[in-house]
Amino acid sequence: SLIGRLMFDLPEEMGLIAVAVRQTQGKGRGGNVWLSPMGCALSTLHLSIPLHSNLGQRIPFIQHLVSLAVVEAVRSIPGYEDIELRVKWPNDIYYSDLMKIGGVLVNSTLIETTFHILIGFGFNVNNSNPTICINDLIAKFNREEGTELKALSADCLIARTVTVLERLIELFQEKGPNGVLPQYYKYWVHSGQRVRLRGEDGPLAWIVGVDDFGFLQVHQEGGGVESVHPDGNSFDMLRNLIVPK
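The line above is the sequence of BPL1 ligase; the predicted structure tokens follow.
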């Protein structure tokens, strides 16, 4: 991609973002195709993160920070705090725990002592297909609550997301995971959720939180707390299959 070629030719302190009106060859995790119709907020952002920093030592956290930034971009606007936008570990943006509304994909390259991070994120703002979009949620909220919140634009939300992300990264660099986790938990869909480990008939466990490196922590019945990672490339809330790392 163009941004991938450009990112090494820019001065360190200069950021780079590409915004697509429409995307024809979007990629998701594990080789999935990312459908990106008109009305979807789509961008790729380049960041440089020093290896010897809080975030440089915990690169998997970046996808969580970006997911949180998208949710906060909407829910930090006065009047929009109760729009049911949430984060789903590890890298999805959801309407409540019902429907995916966006996602994040992170690629990192370590060059000497700097991580060059390419963050692709997309979320439905003004397109009701293929699932649901943020402006649908706002219209629904207006109907139910008698409010008159305005529809939001993709450009505005991309700009807000990047601004919030910069603040979250600063917070993380200064205070580590504990600087951002309370906010993350406020918006995530997994509180107290039950899962099965290692397969349909595996032992029951309860989701506790996220560990220092961004992996999911679960408490197994009759056992201790352990960190797990998604089975394959997705954490399917319907099948709930996760495997200890």
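Note on the example: The chain has two domains: 2-187, 193-244. Residues 65 and 168 are 7 Å apart (CA to CA).
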